[in-house]
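For reference, the entry.
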Amino acid sequence: MEIIISLIEYSDEIHVPDNEWSDPRIARLRDLCNLSIVYINDVYSFEKELNEQNGVLERMLVNTVAYHSLREGITIAAA
């Protein structure tokens, strides 16, 4: 995410001072952006990853949809 933010800053000709980048609120915003990307990727890649594991949900070790479905005992749709 850091590289994407830097590219946006560069392409839009914006300069954000270092003291603003180190602000805890900005750090939190970056963390939330990273999590959003992970969650969105896991939702969109779920079917492909499940097929790669021959439909065995328990083999999907790093997908948050599978993780929540297994951990909470809920359906894939609910996860």
